[in-house]
Design goal:
It holds the Pfam family GerA. Keywords: Membrane, Transmembrane, Transmembrane helix. This protein is α+β, with helices and mostly antiparallel strands. Helices cover about 50% and strands about 10% of the residues. It has three domains: about 120 residues, no CATH class; about 120 residues, no CATH class; about 170 residues, no CATH class.
Length: about 500
């Protein structure tokens, strides 16, 4: 309990308590501060304070009508002196199963646990009512982000519930949640969340300016917000990423990111997303360092294979056969004997067929889709070899490329690789290795020029930050990352003095 002279102790003046609550929960727009009384808000006789995203609406209404208002009438019925008032408050709270608090720090902690508080005029204690809590769905693992180890809690299509799950993970007033409404017909509720003193101030101001422009438009899903705030509309690389996992969302907040949630959508948009973010998963931090680092390097190898293997094969088999070992070259020539098409046409036919099979497997019902993808690939591959349309080596190249693309954990980056693979194949068919190198240079130039919310897309790599390399190619032990200045500042709750990240 706070002492009598404490700066965080409740005051007897309701206006002072209301100002304190407004400052404490500033920009936490899911926290309701409701004045009670028969006249205007300035003449209120009590305040009700609670977090709407942590309480069911019917539950909060029940507490206010059945508990808070009768207790308010008891407490404002008049008292002979302050001592008599304190005793009446204690007795009334016991009858209505309310806990009494006199310190704002305790009230803040309890608000994030789902308490509803009644603060009356003239009293230096608040009555807190414990609610039944947030109504949650049965915990199921997100289909798009499976995990072997770690939490399996996924989001739902209700904004109120998703915000409540975030609040349960990060119970602090530093987690700011702001609302806006988009459209004149759908009136879609949109919320964005960030950690105060952790998210970059310039980035946050840029984000507010961009998301404010979406208000006149009808929003059906979180992806509509992404299209409105991204820097480059025509870049194949995603500048923001999605998640359905609350642990991933909480970790992104701790890393200074901004979350966007919309009603009727389970997807959480993480802004901004850098290039290196698309090769990490939440499971990397739930397993041992050696395993996490090995798997991460495998993902980077998969990225290189999925992007370059078909074009490298076309370039070497067409322009640079001297780079292929003699035994392997003889095997390739023997396999290609009787094939009527050049390597470029063969590669385009097989890649297009594989993409068609993959798209068909996605759109068909789940029990049928997987069977169509596997059986279709086997049948078409074998038939193409027997019909002399494609060589066995090309089927192997395309199959390895497809497997490598499946190893990339984020679907948005996998789509970018699928799009870039075809221009690289064409460049390799026209100029061989020189065309392939020119394609790599153009991609690298684009990545160096690309920005996301005003931040360099290749952050941690360009500009190079040696400190951040502990979580790029390998994952350093968690105790080493927790000793970083950024994490010490985060846990201390003080504004950063080291400059921009």
């Amino acid at each position: 309990m706070a002492t009598k002279g404490s700066d965080t102790a409740l005051a007897a003046d309701l206006r002072a308590n209301r100002a304190m609550a407004g400052a404490l929960f500033d920009r936490c727009q899911d926290v309701c501060i409701i004045p009670l009384g028969d006249g205007p808000a300035e003449d209120a006789v009590a305040l009700v304070v609670y977090c709407a995203s942590l309480m069911d609406e019917q539950e909060s209404r029940r507490i206010r009508t059945l508990l808070a208002e009768p207790l308010l009438r008891e407490l404002t019925g008049g008292a002979a002196d302050a001592q008599d008032g304190e005793s009446r408050l204690r007795e009334a709270g016991a009858r209505h199963q309310a806990e009494l608090f006199q310190d704002w720090k305790e009230i803040e902690d309890k608000v994030w646990q789902g308490y509803l508080f009644l603060i009356a005029e003239g009293w230096t204690r608040a009555a807190g009512f414990k609610s039944a809590g947030l109504t949650k769905r049965q915990v199921t693992e997100p289909v798009s982000e499976p995990s072997v180890q770690g939490p399996r809690e996924g989001t739902v299509e209700t904004l109120h519930v998703n915000l409540g799950m975030l609040r349960q993970r990060i119970g602090t007033s530093r987690l700011k949640i702001e609302y806006l409404t988009a459209g004149t017909v759908l009136r879609t509720d949109i919320a964005f969340a960030y950690l105060d003193d952790t998210a970059d101030a310039e980035m946050l101001a840029e984000f507010r300016g961009r998301i404010g422009r979406i208000a006149p438009y009808e929003v059906l899903d979180t992806s509509f917000v992404e299209d409105a705030i991204q820097d480059s509309d025509w870049s194949p690389f995603p500048q923001h990423r999605y998640t359905e996992r609350t642990d991933t969302a909480a970790a992104s907040l701790l890393d200074g990111k901004i979350l966007v949630l919309t009603d009727n959508s389970p997807m959480i948009l993480i802004c901004p997303a850098f290039f290196v973010d698309f090769f990490t998963t939440s499971e990397d931090y739930y397993v041992r360092t050696v395993y996490a680092s090995t798997v991460r390097m495998l993902r980077l190898l998969a990225f290189a294979i999925a992007l370059t293997l078909p074009s490298a094969y076309v370039a070497m088999s067409t322009f640079h056969p001297e780079l292929i070992p003699n035994i392997l070259l003889l095997a390739i020539l023997d396999a290609r004997e009787g094939i009527p098409f050049p390597a470029i046409v063969e590669a385009l036919i097989m890649e297009t067929s594989f993409e068609l099979l993959r798209e068909a497997g996605i759109r068909l019902p789940r029990p049928v889709g997987s069977a169509v993808s596997i059986v279709g690939a086997l049948v078409i591959g074998q038939a193409a070899i027997m019909a002399k349309i494609a060589s066995p080596i090309m089927v192997i190249v395309v199959a390895l490329t497809g497997i490598a693309s499946f190893a990339i954990p984020h679907y948005e980056m996998a789509i970018a690789i699928r799009l870039l693979r075809f221009p690289l194949i064409l460049a390799a068919s026209f100029m061989g290795g020189y065309g392939l190198m020119l394609g790599f240079i153009l991609i690298l130039l684009h990545l160096c020029c690309l920005q996301t919310l005003g931040q360099p897309y290749l952050s941690s790599l360009a500009p190079l930050r040696l400190r951040d390399l502990r979580d790029v190619f390998v994952r350093a032990p968690l105790k080493a990352m927790m000793r970083s200045p950024r994490n010490r500042r985060l846990h201390a709750g003080a504004p950063g003095k080291e400059g921009k990240r």
